[in-house]
Structures are given as C-alpha cells and as structure tokens.
Amino acid sequence: KPQQQLFSPAFIILKMLSFMIVCFIWLIHSDVIYSIENTTVSGQRRFGYVNSSVTQLSVPEDHHVCLPCQGPDVIWTHQNTKVLVTRRGSYQTYQDRRRYILLMDGSLCLLKLDDSDGGEYQCNQQLVAELQVLTGNDFQVSAGWTLLLPCRGPFKTKQRWFRQREREKKEVIFTRFRNGTEKPERDGDRLSFRNNALQIRDLQPEDAGEYQCN
C-alpha cells in the first residue's frame, strides 16, 4: 500500500501509473485519506465539449480538451494575461496554431496538454474554466472537480471502463460503442463521454477504486 497521508475531505491524491487508476480511501473520524494511482493515457483526436458555464477540470497531460464559448467574435486568454486566440469577423490570430483550434461557435480546443496549460481560461473576459493538468507520478485533485480518463489504443466494437473498489469485485461503469452509443452502467448522471475520454463530474469519495479501460 502507498504511504498514508492525511488530507481534508476536499482533496483527492492521485498517483500516475501506465494503464489504470487505483484509488484507496480510508475514513478516520472526520478526516479522509485519499490515494489514487492513475494512468497517463492518450486517445485518437476527437473533440467534445464542456457543457457548464464555468468548469473545473482535471485532465492528464498529452490529452486534449475543448472549452465552450459562444459568439462570432472572441478573445481567448489564459490567466487573464496571455492571449491565445482572437477572431473578429473573418480575421483570426493564434498564439500557436499547433496547440490551439478555434471552432466555428467560438469554443477553444487545447491540444497536447502540458503543465504550463494549467490555470484559468477566459473568453471575452468571462471566466470559462479552471484547468489542472495531471503530470508526474503524484498529483492532487480537488473533490467536486471533473476528471477526464482517456482510453488508450484502438477498439473493435466498444470501449468499456471498469472500476474496482477496495475489497469489492470489478464492475463495468461505462460502455461506449463504436457507433457512438453511450451506456452509463453506474452513476449515470455523473458519467459521460466528452473530449474522447470518460468524464466523471463532481468527484466524490465513493469514486475511489481501480479504473481500467478495455
């Protein structure tokens, strides 16, 4: 078992591995000990949307994420200082075309995330998202945030995500078929497929466990 560390219930501690997420939770009176072992995984480039107006996202490095904004004319900034993309009429500017894609509706897709991409994102001076890029072997995620878990490699007919809680059997929690049909097997209102990854909204202690895909 990993070394136990004590944290408030507001935080989840994650440790990166190669193909799975492992999470252990110990409850001690009013304090919670969290330890999650997680994978760095990548998927084929496919863009989805973050639906809420202000989103708090934790995403593994090297993956991608799209942030929403509506309007023909947009100015996207990072940390309220760095201008990433602008569009006014048919005229567009990019800080780096290899890293950013501006969609027709004004949404911004960030590619190949790295640690420098963490922080707040504004569209037309309005806060859209807080982004945490998960890097290294150990990281901390706040409870209540949204976590993206990409699935590595090709699949023939379907992608399936499994969760195994401590001292429990492994169970299927989400299935996505090749035709795009989605089937949440557990926690259906919090699980969905966004940004080419399993999206778990509003992280809770009961999300602890070992996660595998295919």
Automatic annotation (TrEMBL):
Ig-like domain location: 160-214
- Give TM segment ranges: 6-28
Which keywords appear in this protein's UniProt record, sorted alphabetically? Membrane, Transmembrane, Transmembrane helix
Q: Name the InterPro entries for this protein.
A: Ig-like_dom, Ig-like_dom_sf, Ig-like_fold, Ig_V-set
Q: What PROSITE patterns does the record point to?
A: IG_LIKE
Listed name of the protein: Ig-like domain-containing protein
Species of origin? Nothobranchius rachovii (bluefin notho)
The uppermost taxa in this organism's lineage are: Eukaryota, Metazoa, Chordata, Craniata, Vertebrata
